[in-house]
Amino acid sequence: MYEGDIASVLLTEDEIQARVKELAVEIASRYPVGSPQGDLLLVGVLKGAIFFMTDLSRALPIPTQMEFMAVSSYGSSTSSSGVVRILKDLDKDIAGRNVLIVEDIIDSGLTLSWLMRNLSSRDPASLQVVTLLRKPDAVRTDVEVSMIGFDIPNEFVVGYGLDYAERYRDLPYIGTLDPKVYEGDGGM
Ligand code: PRP
Ligand code: MN
Ligand code: MG
């Protein structure tokens, strides 16, 4: 699938799954079962975090509930436009809940920094973040990221939820995109 488009495999399916299990253990140790705040509430950021969210929630040995938010800062470009839009908001009130944002990648940190501000204004009991991937630029942002799966180089990556122009999300691994795919795309 997509064979000529993927320049190299950065993280194999096995590497991803092994790290997801480790993150699940780490998360479970931070949230005691039976807390007065109720079950941990996972807030998955659509669409990129979809596979991380489903794998992580099933790897977690504690009861969790799920909410989803859809925001977009990228559109079909490979670099951030700086504009974050809510495409779908949470269905439920998160006041008084322990909330864990589940993201696939932090690149510029813009999406997450905006999301943290937005969700903390809704008065959760606690608000933390787990991201599968983090790129080098993310360290420049003020966002406190509690748990990180992998620090990766500054290359455009796709697969396991990550897209380019909505394609490649369905790959079970994470790979780098061959520049020929986006060359001639207006420098986006
Ligand atoms: C991507 C990715 C993160 C965000 C990271 O989402 O899934 O949510 O960008 O970039 P940043 O740190 O520079 O803000 P995108 O906006 O492409 O939407 P998608 O998840 O639907 O692909
Ligand atoms: Mn996203
Ligand atoms: Mg995207």
TrEMBL record:
InterPro entries found in the cross-reference section: HGPRT, Hxn_phspho_trans, PRTase-like, PRTase_dom
One cellular component term from this protein's GO annotations in UniProt: cytosol
SUPFAM superfamilies referenced in this protein's UniProt entry, alphabetically: PRTase-like (SSF53271)
GO molecular function per UniProt: guanine phosphoribosyltransferase activity; hypoxanthine phosphoribosyltransferase activity; magnesium ion binding; nucleotide binding
Domain of life per record: Bacteria
Gene3D superfamilies documented for this protein: 3.40.50.2020
Catalysed reactions, as listed in the record: IMP + diphosphate = hypoxanthine + 5-phospho-alpha-D-ribose 1-diphosphate; GMP + diphosphate = guanine + 5-phospho-alpha-D-ribose 1-diphosphate
UniProt GO BP: GMP salvage; guanine salvage; hypoxanthine metabolic process; IMP salvage; purine ribonucleoside salvage
Entry cofactors: Mg(2+)
Phosphoribosyltransferase domain mapped to chain residues: 15-164
Cited CDD domains: PRTases_typeI
UniProt-listed Enzyme Commission number(s): 2.4.2.8
Keyword terms, alphabetized: Cytoplasm, Glycosyltransferase, Magnesium, Metal-binding, Nucleotide-binding, Purine salvage, Transferase
PANTHER family assigned: HYPOXANTHINE PHOSPHORIBOSYLTRANSFERASE, HYPOXANTHINE-GUANINE PHOSPHORIBOSYLTRANSFERASE
Family the UniProt entry places it in: Belongs to the purine/pyrimidine phosphoribosyltransferase family.
Protein name (database record): Hypoxanthine phosphoribosyltransferase
Species assigned in the record: Antrihabitans stalactiti
Gene of this entry: hpt
